[in-house]
Amino acid sequence: MSREIIYQQEAQAARRFGYCLAGLGAAAILSILLACMFGRLPIPLAAVVQTFLAKAGLIQAGTLNQTWQEVIFQIRLSRICLSLLVGMSLAVAGTAFQGILRNPLADPFTLGVSTGAACGASVAIFMGLAAKTAFGMGLLPMAALAGAMAALAAVMAPGRINGRLQRDTMVLAGIVVSIFLSALISLLKSLDEESVSSIVFWVMGSFQGRGWSQVLFASPYIIAGLVIVGLNARELDLLALGEMQARQMGVEVDQARRRLLIGASLLTAGAVAVSGIIGFVGLVVPHLLRMLIGAEHRPLLILSALLGGLALLWSDVLARVILPGGEELPVGVVTAILGGPFFCLLLKKRREGEIL
Predict the structure, then answer these.
(1) Number of domains in the chain
(2) Is residue 29 in a domain?
């Protein structure tokens, strides 16, 4: 392949990335405004825009509805920010896990991290700690975070052979840990019938009742995970070539894999700790973008973060407006219902050559 053709392909890829970045960035800004309209109390778009302008000091706030302002800034905006954070985290974690394991069907559940968070939260609910606080924060997210990191440690311990982390062994260890922790959750539900509804609702994933405190709790872990994964984007590209090729290119494979595992697990743990288990975002989003823009991880991580946040934001909007009586569906149910058929369609089109 001539150098001129390579330059043309790189320029074309850069243009595609630029178009996608601009489109998703504009969609994110518009979505924040539009999502503030929906809920049990409908709010007109004009009122939402005026409320944001008043908050920025660009117009007088005296004539605006005070109830609408409280609903927008104290309830809906916090939930929007949390859904964007969680969607971003799950999509970036899915991209990282797929690169680490060299498997496009991997997601944040593959290594048992999400199940570990669910188990930690279930234990807290079973012990009656869900309503208790420490350091101004509920114990439930803390228990979920501890469970997620414990699950990662349990997977990495048997995943070492001769001191090195083995990709296939980690996958098998993750499956075993997930099955064991799922059985433990079922045991907790059977031992205490009063906690069943709370455990099931949390495991299904929801943003109901979440607010700014959950945003503040999850942000440090999510930011740390994003930084770790972003700084190791080049190592993800080289690991995708194979372990031997990565070593020949000067990559310390075990250390890079360990850093990426910790970063992706921090993202997953921070997200699941405040939202419960939400599936398919970490699987579908990276897979779709990889077919659209290619497999280079730096642009893939950036666009996955934006598209993952948008996908979960609108899934949450749908979860709170789809039922006519004003009740809410768990957002994890919505992502599963929408994500499953959509992912099957992507695979079908890929086999038929409709998506390159």
Answers:
(1) 1
(2) no
CB within 8 Å of 300: residues ≥ 6 apart: 95, 286, 289, 290, 293, 294
Report d(CA 177, CA 170) in Å as an integer: 10
Quote the domain boundaries for residue 277: 36-352
Reduce the DSSP state of residue 137 to 3 states and report it: strand
Round to whole Å and give the CA distance between 291 and 32.
27
Single pTM value for the model: 0.88
Tell how far CA 218 is from the center of its chain.
12
**C-alpha closest to that of 280 among 317, 308, 310:** 308
Judged on CB neighbours under 10 Å (0-12, 13-18, 19+), 174 is buried
Q: Is residue 28 part of a domain?
A: no
* 188 part of a folded domain: yes
> Of 304, 315, 333, 314, which is closest to residue 93 (Cα–Cα)?
304
Report H helices in the chain: 3-35, 45-55, 66-70, 77-101, 113-126, 139-156, 167-191, 196-204, 212-231, 233-239, 243-248, 253-275, 281-293, 297-321, 331-352
Domain CATH code at residue 179? 1.10.3470.10
What does the pLDDT look like over 86-142, one tens digit per residue?
999 999 999 999 888 887 777 887 778 888 888 888 888 888 776 666 555 567 778
Other C-beta atoms lying within 10 Å of the C-beta of residue 81: 18
Find, among 300, 288, 183, the residue nearest to 236 by Cα: 300
